[in-house]
Hints:
By secondary structure, the protein is an alpha+beta fold. It has one domain. The protein is about 15% helix and about 35% strand. The strands form two sheets. An eight-stranded antiparallel beta sheet has the order 3-4-5-6-12-9-8-7. The protein has a four-stranded mixed beta sheet with strand order 1-2-10-11, with no helix packed on it. It is globular, with a radius of gyration of 19 Å. The termini are far apart. The N terminus and C terminus are likely disordered.
Amino acid sequence: MKKLIAPVFIFALVMIACGLTAPNTNTIVIVVTATPQTIPTNPMPAQPINPTLPPGPSQTPQPTPAAFTILDIEKALKNDGYVRAPFDDPKYGTGFAWTKDNPYEQVLTWDSGDFRLQVLDVSSTTTRSKHMEEKLQVLDSLFPPEFMTILRQDNEAYNQSVGPSVSGDPAQLFTSNDAWHDIWGQYNVSSKTIGPYPVTFALWFWQMTCPSQYSYCYMTDFPGQEFTGETSFVFYSIEILISPSSSGSTG
């Protein structure tokens, strides 16, 4: 058995590609174990300074200091059974990708004080809201009840306003030049301030291409799903900015 390893889009996105050559055949199969991760970017500001450029940390509005920091968010995730994987992006900073049951439904925390709740878009907005609710429950012990009430109302309202897929022009679009030709786009952005915290609701579109040298590709996270050419996923995310941590992430 011959194993080939191919690099894929980085920033907390770990994908292992193995080409398997069967005896006496020329068919090559590539296996992709994917923990998809959103692109290395901070949340969209409430009012983009320059919508043609991806926003960096310096463009992010600063909230009123909270009674807790990103360390408390990370502690709550850990107590709820999430495990973490670190990332370090030279442009957007360091942080962790937190995973519990589904590797496609992560929580991202940046040392800057930003964090993102992400769920895989599913067949109905009702199921999408249910998956997000499971993550919102982690925040109940930290944020004021009034904030969580409005956040839940806005979560439901957003999901009623958008369909099961992205629409319109992307607010941000990112591409890679590796063999997988990843494309990440942020769509249907709704930014507002709830209490002192900037909050952004959005859909993310991720497309990858099976390298042409392979007969077909498939993801072990989705048994039976094979593809050639392009395949894509849509994610729903809520991004919240709180006070940055003062002493690094928890152990």
